[in-house]
Design a protein that fits this description.
With 310 residues, the protein is an alpha/beta fold. It is built from 12 helices and 9 strands. Strands 2-1-9-8-7-6-5-4-3 form a 9-stranded parallel beta sheet. Helix 2 runs parallel beside helix 3 (72-83). The two termini are 19 Å apart. Bound molecules: 3-hydroxy-3-methylglutaryl-coenzyme A and magnesium ion.
Length: 310
């Protein structure tokens, strides 16, 4: 029994990557059970203690739209000063006001590459989303905050089917150009495959985006997430979103299941000898503990292999 893979580096890979942990937000927003705020607080503290450099904490969205995160204020207050450095999602000026009131220093807007998902997730058309986000980014930047931009449905949409790469690049660039410091490309329903990832990243680069400004956000619905990370590494991307224990989905995207599990990503990167700074044992213990609270085992293969049953 081993708790780490043998390290065998491969050519054409970066030395180090940043793991951007989204479990407390993308994961818990989709849980049918409401998770008590003290469990969320402990989850975030344990993820930080396990060495994750960035942990997205929650969302300041409408509590009727995502009741699972209706405790955002209370959670951020409990996290105190440490919480101010954790990114939070803000869809509009009302969300930004809530984040500013709590002293948050990192916010993220989340746009859609498709018309249908913009309407379902934001109650806005594709064009109206920019009108909603523009003052959010301007005011956040004026207040000295850092802004991340997400673009969803980059690799396929459950209502519209295939999404043209040109459309993804156009929407992504417009969102980034509002004043973001990073653009995270979301495979919201996990349908992307490795060649598609290479094509999308290369199309952004051809349009003038720096690869260092891009992040990849994979859901693992079809088991392609790690293969897609491999394509991303070869394409020069060094930030990957992942969710502890493989929690996650999106309440407004049918067929969106869990994010790429952070443990599976850590195992994969460790095997390649790519630095990530995360303590896998502490992470597996955290996901096993959380699975006990959720009342079901983690879908992560690595958590199942290394963890004791919840
Ligand atoms: P709306 O109904 O159009 O809102 O929702 P509105 O602007 O018409 O306002 C209606 C009422 O809501 C007003 O109150 C506002 O004050 C209030 P009233 O005057 O009627 O009393 N309101 C708010 N209250 C609290 N916080 C707010 C807020 N905004 C308005 N922020 C809205 C528009 C964007 C708010 C709504 O559609 C929403 O909350 N959507 C969020 C959906 C969501 O969170 N989805 C999951 C995150 S995205 C994701 O998971 C994908 C990602 O992981 C990447 C990937 O996988 O691809 C990021
Ligand atoms: Mg997501």
């Amino acid at each position: 029994m081993t708790d780490l893979p043998m390290t065998v580096p491969s050519s054409g890979q970066p030395d180090r990557v940043t793991i951007y942990e989204v479990g407390p937000r993308d994961g818990l927003q989709n849980e049918s059970a409401l998770v008590p705020v003290e469990v969320k607080e402990e989850l975030i503290r344990r993820l930080l203690a396990a060495g994750l450099p960035i942990v997205e904490a929650t969302s300041f969205v409408h509590p009727r739209w995502v009741p699972q995160l209706a405790d955002a204020e209370e959670l951020m207050r409990r996290l105190g000063e440490e919480g101010r450095d954790l990114p939070v999602l803000v869809p509009n000026e009302r969300g930004l006001d809530r984040a500013l009131e709590l002293g948050c220093r990192h916010v993220a807007i989340f746009g859609s590459a498709t018309e249908t998902f913009a309407r379902k997730n934001l109650n806005r058309s594709l064009d109206e989303q920019y009108v909603m986000f523009e003052p959010v980014v301007r005011r956040a930047r004026d207040a000295g905050l850092d802004v991340r931009a997400y673009v969803s449905m980059c690799f396929g949409d459950p209502w519209e089917g295939a999404v043209p790469v040109d459309q993804v690049v156009d929407v992504g660039q417009r969102l980034f150009d509002l004043g973001a410091s990073q653009l995270s490309l979301g495979d919201t329903i996990g349908v992307g495959t490795a060649g598609h990832v290479t094509a999308v990243v290369d199309a952004f680069a051809a349009a003038g985006m720096r690869r260092s400004d891009l992040a990849l956000h994979f859901h693992d619905t079809y088991g392609q997430a790690l293969s897609n990370v491999q394509a991303g590494l070869r394409a020069g991307i060094t930030t990957y979103d992942a969710s502890a224990g493989g929690l996650g989905g999106c309440p407004y995207a049918k067929s969106a299941t869990g994010n790429l599990a952070t443990e599976d990503l850590v195992w994969f990167l460790t095997g390649l000898g790519i630095e990530h700074g995360v303590d896998l044992t502490a992470l597996v213990e955290t996901s096993t503990w959380l699975a006990g609270h959720l009342g079901r085992p983690s879908p992560s293969a690595v958590v199942r292999a290394l963890g004791s049953p919840a």
